[in-house]
Amino acid sequence: AKAKSRGSISVYEPEMDAQIRDRRVLHQDLSLAIRNGELSLHYQPQAVARHTVAESEVIGFEALARWLHPVRGFVPPGDFIPIAEESGLIVEMGEWILREACREAASWPKPLQIAVNLSPAQFMHGDVVGLVHSILIETGLAPGRLELEITEGVLIEDFDRGLALLRRLKALGVRVSMDDFGSGYSSLSYLQAFPFDKIKIDRAFVMHLGRNPQSASIVRAVVGLGHGLGMSIVAEGVETQEQLGFLADEDCDAVQGYFIGKPAPIGQYSALVGRTNAP
Ligand code: C2E
Ligand code: CA
Ligand code: CA
Ligand code: CA
């Protein structure tokens, strides 16, 4: 299908930026992706922060969207989520993701947490409360097992609406976490204003632990601040033993990252969710 054209400007004009053209093609493909069963979810473990991986018990998983394009192969979520956001496709896609993640988690023998990302458009413009409510009923997932990740910055767009939405979500019994903390325009008043259960420290700070004393100070401060506000702290992007040790020392609550486990199809984590007799 040809995208909207105005006057003599058409999608196929040579001066058209290749990237824009590419985005349009991706958008057309994306609108078929759900229907064609090209979307799937990978799951990445979240574990309590202890000094060794063996001691760091897995307490839940984050669901991460994957798109296997028939020609291009895997398209990273960083490429297709923004397109879905701009085009409004995120509503349908986000609904599929939430339903699939909740359905999957409800089938696990162990009652672990499941964290699902909500995109800004999905959060601010869709009926997110109604959707979460109906999916919980439909899948039978206990609300206390669902955690919704919202990036900082989203709520500030419309403070009153953001606050009302968070409160209504929490009234359903689900938990909300602030994703990518420190990567955007977060402020301390922001943390105080919104009733988050959890802060996810952005990978950018965790990455430099051990090499950069400023990162250590920031992580230490965020842990103290979050705990002072009654929130729990998860560090993202933990890749080394050194980082894990530091986070455990600093009383960070949980960790997520390649050092604990990479995002993978749930089959790879059968034992962790209680599907086999493995330890
Ligand atoms: P995010 O929510 O911050 O997700 C964490 C990202 O960090 C994931 O990238 C994950 O694969 C990656 N990661 C985890 N551990 C490590 C590590 O130790 N080292 C490094 N270098 N990376 C690590 P991914 O899956 O490519 O997703 C990128 C972003 O796309 C996500 O960032 C999230 O903002 C968005 N996204 C992914 N899935 C969904 C979804 O289902 N819905 C929405 N709305 N957004 C999604
Ligand atoms: Ca996330
Ligand atoms: Ca994150
Ligand atoms: Ca991120």
Automatic annotation (TrEMBL):
Looking at the record, the residues that make up the EAL domain are 23-277
- Please give the superkingdom of this protein's source: Bacteria
What this protein is called in its record is PAS domain S-box-containing protein/diguanylate cyclase (GGDEF) domain-containing protein
Q: Which organism is it from?
A: Bradyrhizobium canariense
User: Which taxonomic lineage is given here?
Assistant: Bacteria, Pseudomonadati, Pseudomonadota, Alphaproteobacteria, Hyphomicrobiales
